[in-house]
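example protein:
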Amino acid sequence: MSSWNEGRRPLTIAILAMGGEGGGVLADWIVDVGERSGYHAQTTSVAGVAQRTGATVYYVEMFPGGEPHEDDVRREPVLSLFPTPGEVDVVIASELMEAGRSIQRGFCTPDRTTLIASTNRVYSMDEKLALGDGRVDSNALLEAAHAGARRFIGADFMQLALDAHSVISAALFGALAGSGALPFARETFEDAIRAAGKGVDASLAAFALGEEAAQRPAPQPITAAPAGSGPVAITIGKRPVDPAEEAAAAAERRREEVAAAAPASLVGPRLQAQAERIAAQFPAPARSMLLHGAVRTAVFQNTAYTDRYLDRVARLADVETGDGARLTTEGARHVALWMCYQDTIQVAQQKIRRRRIEGVRAEAKAAAGQLMNVREYLHPQVEEIADTLPTRLGRWVARSRWFGTVVGRLTRNGMVVNTTGIIGFTLLWAMAMLRPIRPRSLRFAREQAAIEAWLDRALAVAPIDYDLACEIVECQRVLKGYGETHHHSLESFDRLMAAADGLVGRTDAAATLVRLRSAALADEDGTALEQALLTVTAEQEPVAAIS
């Protein structure tokens, strides 16, 4: 006599989601679908915070129901509490990195698993904290998703949910129904949503969009053309793009940038004279970047500061020899970034900007008329306070042990400022109003002198090694933040400039400086840069020197 469970196995589903995305609700919906279809079902969850706050693995296991034999001791199956690597039928990931984690942990396997993943990105703490571009290559994640699953269903389910004014769990639930990975009818899925009784209409709308998306091919990673093979079509997102078509689109974008460089409402009436100067005096490829730099410097200080900005970039344009005007374009970018350095005035100004507050409201999904509080955690240091003060007073404050002790006691545990409260907003507003005295501050003089020295170095190198001069300009990327972070980044920048002086005349000078800059951006304490500098040898004697 055969047992009632012979020949049967459970359906296993792992859901990888973050806090606030409704992963628990999604798991509950799936359990409801299973139970409505006569399955034994249970869900468990294990929270984890290794890569980002709130990342959780929800696990659903369902066993087919049936009549037990009279000789069977156990009337119900024993279901597992956590997914077993290699034994998961369906993996649902709320974000592309979570899909990668599922493959890395062995939950998703090419012989068994249907992977349903949203292609949007929510960056991990490691990605956000990186000094340079710490983002994981989404193209590599897509490649892993296709290779690591028996079937990959991918779309931007977050955007689909937003379009339906719902949450991503509903769109992913629709994709699960549309995948056909579970032997249940669509109506059963919809009944589970209705039974929950919350946001039913919006959830059903997102469900429908997700189900429809599951019928479309998953996005493919970008594939480069083999060397020497000539033009080939590449796949970006959902449709193939012909290289000739892409080149025409790029040319059109360049024409639009040149047109935008003419005086227009883009820069506003205060900067019309500067816009006219950009159109008349600077190479076309650099004009769009210059307009953005002009707006940025004017917001940071005033139009006179913008004129100073254009004067500095003009020095680079005067020695420009590259077809694409790379030196001028990158100079326009990095001169503006350095001139708009982060000080206490800039931080206060950014925190009270109307656009920023509106952005926070939108992100928090605050309804019209709904009260909202924005609290800032601040930890001011003596150096930051001294840098904001007039030069002589700032130097005295920086040397004063008494002042340092007082500031240390007041800010030992940090300060919480309510930006949306009267007192907090007024404090930040008063700090931002110090902008007119910024040119007399201790840090302003120091930064302007450093900018001039940096440009002088690039200008001296340009006639000898154009590419090296461009890389010297791009070394501004190393300068980050304020306080201790800025102090460490400035040390790395100084070491890069010293190394650049020694590279002049070497055939690999530009490539070597790129490698050193990447090392400087690898960590904050300079360990990687130190190791990279040790590998730089003087095999080729310099044939020229900076005068």
